[in-house]
Design goal:
homodimer, 349 residues, Isopropylmalate Dehydrogenase, 10-stranded mixed sheet, two-stranded antiparallel ribbon, 12 strands, 42% helix, binds 3-isopropylmalic acid, NAD (chains A, B), IsoPropMal-DH-like_dom (chains A, B)
Chain lengths: 349, 349
């Protein structure tokens, strides 16, 4: 399989190196041959050639079976007056590859419940996936700026809503058959369209799946007060961005969480949900688990290697069971990126 | 003082009745004369005259010293095809009165920490206020719908950002002199404008106040992982809507939280942050504390009666200390709306 690796910025290269080591170990154990192709994206690509998504990178991704990404962005490229931004590279890549469904599973591990700001009794048994629409909405609408004011347009078409809701319902069929669609239909026209389409798709195509609607503000509460009651959550791009970062607190640290961005083809983009964390970059203390679990999602969704994916997940689980935690989770000894990766690798070999 | 009372829908009338009883008790104890004028808004107004903000209601508000509101909305008026919605009445009122700054304080009471989904040790000492921009952004931008797609425009002008940031900085001066401005400047043009203006206003006009910037997704995490580190949080309309509902979980129940919507004049609109909760309407179990604390904010901000406001706040605090809780907070006996109100009144008289 051809796999493109995009380390990106900040702690991106560190966690990506860990993920690549895990991918190689899986290849060795199960005798798969993974061809890895590393390319530049984000701030690193701006530094190298002035473009956050160089043509060579995009071409490689179009050719790949899967793409593994670290993180992009950082203060170095965030000047208010900056003409190009690292984030544009990531957004353009998601769009160019047609990856409209961003899956973000949250399944707190028993060993890390203690680190979550949420009370443990609310967390046991939590097992949810947010399906965030990823190539539409206010992220991609027209943006204007004239001296005195600025604007961003949020737009959704029926087709854009249909396909992501469908994906969420299909996922729910493999799970507990419950979908929560999140919008702000009491205020936004795009949300009213969203709600209508979601209702129709679920009714006509997934009569065996239960659909409920929640307003985004209520959802920000319910995610905390009754997280166990959610199975699949589907929502638009911006709401998904906010709610998944919030939901990451259910797991104790966003450093633990992976994501898969999928479209109609088998190819996907896999990245931890955390950012480039410039404050801790280069110190060898970044948590590689989110990136490593992204490898598991890559194996499962783009390569069809479910057993291998399960092996990675079990190796991570065993590592956490052993109390090997990075700084944001640790009470006593904090393990560095290498130590955690080594522990995971040991469980795989 | 002339005070307009807008009970609205669902539990709105129940909690408003409690708030009015408290207002009358304060008037009696401190010998103030409050003239109360009740008017229709929201779904109740649609039912009465087809308009969620009748002219008579708006005229009364324009004339008033302060407006006390319950809540609007409910399934009865939420048909996808509905031409008028209860929420439009509230949004139009906020806009017409120029109430651009919505203050939502969150100060968990020791007695209700146990009911919060957040671990108690994170909550002690939490004392923050969200200043939510209330008359701009995607709530009020153009909305379009043509069969196949829908759009909402988010727009902010320099002036709109300046005035609400100024209000937040002024508030911070009376507190711990720390302002966190929340945006999504790595993606949205309106957020980049927001960040530039916030930076300039703080630097030029409030050198004694510390301003930090947070991305909205990170903020959704930090609110939970380190709530004590925030003092004043200022953000745009939609982000504020989501983050305040999330922040309400720090207090144990959104039923406890008040809000004040202010503009350049002294007049303000005061409402609990909870919604109309149609599922429990008419059962006498709604928590009136959010509405009652809104009366305290009204006394302080629109009538300049700080001592009286403090009296209401202490009465609420004493009631909670006595373990008199509504259902969503109670472990044992759940007190109804009347019982809670009676307890508060007893502490005032
Ligand atoms: C880096 C940024 C553009 C990105 C987003 O907002 O989509 C990130 O926050 C994410 O969630 O993947
Ligand atoms: C009822 C609704 C329009 C309103 C809003 O979104 O502003 C409510 O959620 C609030 O927070 O006051």
């Amino acid at each position: 399989a051809e796999i493109v690796v995009l380390p990106g910025d900040g702690i991106g290269p560190e966690v990506t190196a860990a993920a690549v080591a895990v991918l190689r170990a899986v290849g060795q154990r199960y005798r798969h041959h993974f061809n890895l192709h590393e390319h530049a994206i984000g701030g690193a690509a701006i530094d190298a050639c002035g473009d956050p998504l160089p043509e060579k990178t995009l071409a490689a991704c179009h050719y790949a079976d899967a793409v593994l990404l670290g993180a992009v962005g950082g203060p170095k490229w965030s000047d208010p007056g900056a003409k190009v931004r690292p984030e544009q590279g990531l957004l353009a890549l998601r769009k160019a590859m047609g990856l409209y469904a961003n899956l973000r599973p949250v399944q707190p591990h028993p060993a890390t419940l203690g680190a979550a700001p949420i009370k443990p009794h609310l967390l046991s048994g939590v097992d949810l996936v947010v399906v965030r629409e990823l190539t539409g909405g206010i992220y991609f609408g027209d943006k204007t700026r004239d001296g005195g004011s600025a604007s961003d347009v949020c737009r959704y078409s029926v087709g854009e809503v249909e396909r992501v809701v469908r994906r969420a319902c299909e996922l729910a069929r493999e799970r507990r058959r419950h979908v929560t669609s999140v919008d702000k239909a009491n205020v936004l026209e795009t949300s009213r369209l969203w709600r209508e389409v979601a209702t129709r798709v679920a009714r006509d195509e997934f009569p065996d799946v239960t659909l409920e609607h929640q307003l985004v503000d209520s959802m920000a509460m319910h995610l905390l007060s009754r997280p166990r009651s959610f199975d699949v959550i589907v929502t638009e791009n911006m709401f998904g961005d906010i709610l998944t970062d919030e939901a990451s607190m259910l797991a104790g640290s966003m450093g633990l969480l992976p994501s898969a961005s999928l479209g109609d083809e088998r190819v996907g983009l896999y990245e931890p949900i955390h950012g480039s964390a410039p404050d801790i970059a280069g110190r060898g203390i970044a948590n590689p688990i989110g990136a490593i679990l992204s490898v598991a999602m890559l194996l499962r969704h783009s390569l069809g290697l479910a057993m291998e994916a399960g092996c990675v997940e079990q190796a991570v689980s065993a590592t956490l069971d052993d109390g090997i935690f990075s700084a944001e989770l640790a009470h006593g000894h904090a393990a560095g990126t290498r130590e955690i990766t080594a522990a995971v690798l040991e469980h795989i070999a």
